[in-house]
Amino acid sequence: MSTLFDLIKEYALIGYFKILPFVHKTTPDAWNHGDKGDVVLIPGLHETAFSLLKVGNVLNVLGYRIHTIPDFSSIAPVQKIHERLENVVKSLDGEEIILVSHSKGGVVARYFLTQSPLADRVKSAVTISAPHHGSLFGKLQYHNLHELDHNSEVLMTINDSPDHAKKIINIYPRLDNHVLPNRNLLLDGAKNIEIDIVGHTRILASDKLFDELIRVLK
C-alpha cells in the first residue's frame, strides 16, 4: 500500500512541475553567481528547467553557477538538444563544468560526452533516473520516445563508447516507474548510487538526493 501512495505522490509531483513554468517566469537571479564552477541542467522528457529547480538551488548554495539550455524542448531529438547543450558549454569560460540531468537528459549528457569535441571541458556528469539502457516506454512512437528504446541508434552509439562512464555519477531510485526494467538504470563504469525512494520524478524533490549531491559535489 505504501508503494501505491508513493506513486500517487509521484504523479502529483509531475503535475506540479507542469505548473511551475507559469509560476516562475525566470530562474533565480542567484543562479548567476558562484565561485565553485558551472553546472548545466538538462531536464528530461516533458520537463523544463523548473523540474530541476530544487536541485539547482542546492547546487547554487554549494557555490556553483547554474545554467539552463535556451529554447529547450524536451521532446526534440537527442541530437538537437545536444547541439543546444554544446552552445551553452561554448559560452562558458570556466574549467569546472558539470552536467546535471534527469531522465532523457541523462541520455543527452552521455551523447555529449561521447560525440562532442567539447567533452573534455566537462569535469563530470550527474545523471538522475536515466534510462541508460532504454525503457519499455521507448516502444511508443511519439515525441521521439523511440530514442529511448534499448535498441535505438542513439543508445547503441553511446553504449558503444564505454570509457566516458568514468566521468558519471549515476543516481537512481529504489523503484523507478518509468525506466522499465529497473536494471536499465545501472551503468557499468559509472559511480552507481541508489536512493531509497519510490518514483522516477519524485527523487527530484527528495532530501536524500540533495544530501547525496552535496556529498559528491561539495
From TrEMBL:
UniProt cross-references to SUPFAM superfamilies, sorted A to Z: alpha/beta-Hydrolases
Occurrences of domain GPI inositol-deacylase PGAP1-like alpha/beta (ranges): 93-135
UniProt cross-references to Pfam families, sorted A to Z: PGAP1
GO molecular function: hydrolase activity, acting on ester bonds
Top-level division of the source organism's lineage: Bacteria
Protein name: GPI inositol-deacylase PGAP1-like alpha/beta domain-containing protein
